[in-house]
Specification:
The radius of gyration is 44 Å and the shape is elongated. It is an alpha+beta fold. α3 packs antiparallel against α4, α4 packs parallel to α6 and α5 packs antiparallel against α6. The protein folds into five domains: 83 residues, Sandwich (Immunoglobulin-like); 108 residues, Immunoglobulin-like (Sandwich); 188 residues, no CATH class; 90 residues, Immunoglobulin-like, CATH 2.60.40; 86 residues, Sandwich (Immunoglobulin-like). The protein has a five-stranded mixed β-sheet, with no helix packed on it. Helices cover 22% and strands 33% of the residues. A hairpin with a 7-residue loop joins β35 and β36.
Length: 623
């Protein structure tokens, strides 16, 4: 029995030694001479079936995975990749370390075998389908801190990461530092020294490249292909973006803002701020302000909105093509864009023409507001409402479609459907039709009042003033005491006048102080204007001396309103200039203004505008 026990113990020890033997190459093993890329290599030893990966390492420490690895416990067989250049390499086993013998890859073909030796005929390997690239995502990868990241999507890639080679046309194989399974590159992505890294999906349909570096600063469009088992796919093109896509949006805003600032400076050089009822409006308001009614113009707003939207979109499209797609040409515009522009410009021109023939819209409240876009004379107009809403829909939708497109693929403006153009045309026609069908609205230019016993005598100057109108002061309706007299307006419908004169019952209390007067025509259209019950009484000043330098002029003014602004129209000048300095008031009645008389002699006009919006003028003689 003791012999049997000893035999069992020896067998168990032999098995344990066999299982625990590490991978080892045969002592003194050397590689055959004259090997070249594409040939098979066999390594002998013990425990070699435990090896999971084999790679060739060059003198630059670049690691190149081998192809077609097969293994037994005593032999490893693999193929030298076609991408390997001539040189001396170290073969690394994982696990197992490096093989002491160096592998020399020759640049010239191996010598042909002697004629007498009959070559062995190997059984043909079963053909595998070639790899195919379907797309590269994103179409224009953006530069990051560690290079470019992108995905190659397709089919028939090798699920084993080391068996896929990504080749760049004209640049060669991408020298990956690591070849990993999904999520395997996460630990290397923040370290440029560990990149580039390649991940392969388990289904062999996606290769993820991290940390790819362009060869030179102006490298944009490139072509890539994939080698699997030395079988290449076709080349697929994509573009390396110059900048991050978010920078394109911000850069568009910057360029657009610079252009608008240039336009603003041009406007500011020739147009002065406009003052309505004591409130100053910027020069930009001139683009949409109707100075005849002191209200915002809807047709001007649409023309301005369409222009700004198209300017912004064109700048964005140009930057996308130049900085992302590397296309250095001016983008085209869609064929139906001129149609939409013609609708907008034609509507603006037609609205101005109708205003001159039919008369203006109602002035409405004293100060212009956004409500002017959908109202007329203080009343909401359906035709203006639908025209305004369709303008907003077209503008917002156009910008949204531009910004939501991929900067790598956008080539032109979104196309306006024919149905939308038809709706925009009908909307414009409805707006113009409503403008033509409505009566012109009232416009107040001056309100003068004086107490007449318990009543208030009122004189109105303006256009489209209706004798059958209703009158309000501070929002309270006032009843006329007797009839309303007026001077008929030439070319206007019956009952419309340029002046009205009447008394309001028991309204003498409004003969003092500043108030707001409102007229509402019989059709409901109205207008408002501030007035003062005790207007300024300006004494005639001394004669001014002509000249181009500023001079101080002191006037005696009864009932002066402090913090009023002043305007000066020099003799022979067609424009009124707002004086930059506020008039200096010295109670009780001394007011000093600084103005430039001008080089031309004659009569100029000095106008004061109170904080409430009332105006008083006086002529000044320049000699």
């Amino acid at each position: 029995m003791s012999s049997i026990y000893r035999l069992v113990i020896l067998v168990l020890l032999a098995c344990g030694a066999s299982l625990g033997a590490p991978s080892a190459v045969t002592a003194g093993f050397t590689f055959a001479a004259g090997l070249q890329a594409g040939q098979s290599v066999t390594v002998t030893g013990i425990g070699l079936d435990a090896v999971v990966a084999v790679a060739l390492q060059s003198a630059t420490k670049q690691s190149i995975p081998v192809l077609n690895l097969t293994k037994t416990s005593t032999a490893l067989t693999f193929t030298i990749p076609l991408s390997v250049t001539a040189g001396i390499y170290t073969v690394a086993l994982s696990p197992g370390g490096t093989i002491p013998a160096a592998l020399t890859v020759a640049a010239s073909p191996a010598p042909a075998p002697p004629p007498a030796a009959a070559p062995a005929v190997a059984a043909p390997a079963p053909a595998s389908p070639p790899p195919a690239i379907e797309s590269v995502f994103p179409a224009a990868p953006i530069p990051g801190d560690t290079g470019f990241d992108f995905e190659i999507n397709g089919s028939n890639f090798n699920p084993w990461p080391g068996q896929n080679i990504v080749n760049v046309d004209g640049q060669g194989d991408i020298p990956f530092r690591h070849n990993e399974a999904p999520r395997g590159c996460d630990g290397y992505r923040k370290n440029p020294d560990e990149l580039p890294c390649l991940e392969t999906s388990n289904d062999g349909r996606r290769l993820s490249v991290f940390g790819f570096q362009r060869r030179y600063a102006y490298q944009g469009p490139i072509k890539v292909r994939v080698f699997v088992n030395n079988v290449p796919s076709g080349f697929t093109s994509f573009t390396l973006s110059r900048v991050n896509h978010r920078i394109i949006v911000w850069l568009t805003f910057v360029v657009f803002a610079v252009l608008m600032y240039i336009v603003y400076r041009l406007v500011a050089s020739g147009i002065k701020p406009y003052i309505i009822a004591g409130q100053k409006y910027s020069r930009l308001a001139a683009f949409v302000l109707d100075k005849e009614t002191n209200s915002y113009s809807l047709s001007k707003f649409q023309a301005l909105a369409f222009s700004l939207v198209f300017f912004f979109a064109y700048i964005y499209l140009f930057l996308c093509r130049a900085l992302v797609q590397w296309k250095f040409d001016l983008p085209d515009v869609p064929d139906n864009y001129p149609t939409l522009l013609a609708i907008s410009a034609g509507t603006t021109a037609a609205a101005i023409g109708l205003g001159s023939v039919r008369g203006t819209k109602g002035a409405g409240p004293v100060q212009p507001s956004a409500a002017d876009f959908v109202s007329n004379g203080g009343m909401v107009a359906a035709d203006r409402f639908q025209f305004f809403v369709w303008t907003l829909i077209a503008c917002i939708g156009f910008i949204a479609l531009i910004l939501m497109q991929d900067p790598a693929t956008i080539n032109t403006f979104p196309t306006f459907p024919q149905g939308l153009l038809y709706v925009m045309g009908v909307s414009a026609a409805g707006y113009l039709g409503g403008k033509a069908a409505r009566n012109p609205g009232p416009v107040l230019k001056q309100v003068k009042v004086a107490a007449n016993g318990d009543d208030l005598h009122v004189d109105l100057i303006g256009t489209n003033l209706d004798k059958m109108a209703k009158f309000r002061i501070e929002g309270a309706e006032q009843d006329p005491a007797g009839g309303v007299d007026g001077a008929s307006q030439a070319g206007a419908q019956q009952g419309y006048c340029t002046t009205l004169s009447f008394d309001l019952e028991r309204a003498s209390g409004f003969a003092n102080g500043d108030h707001t007067f409102e007229i509402v025509n019989a059709d409901g259209l109205g207008a408002q204007l501030p007035f003062t019950g005790n207007p300024m009484d300006i004494a005639k000043p001394a004669v001014l001396t002509a000249g181009t330098g500023a001079v101080d002029v002191t006037l005696t003014i009864q009932n002066y309103r402090d913090k009023s602004v002043a305007r000066w129209q020099a003799p022979g000048s067609a424009t009124t200039q707002d004086l930059q300095k506020l008039p200096q008031f010295s109670p009780p009645d001394q007011v000093t203004v600084s103005l430039v008389p001008g080089s031309q002699k004659g009569i100029g006009t000095l106008t004061f505008v109170t904080p409430g919006g009332a105006t008083e003028t006086t002529p000044l003689e320049v000699q």
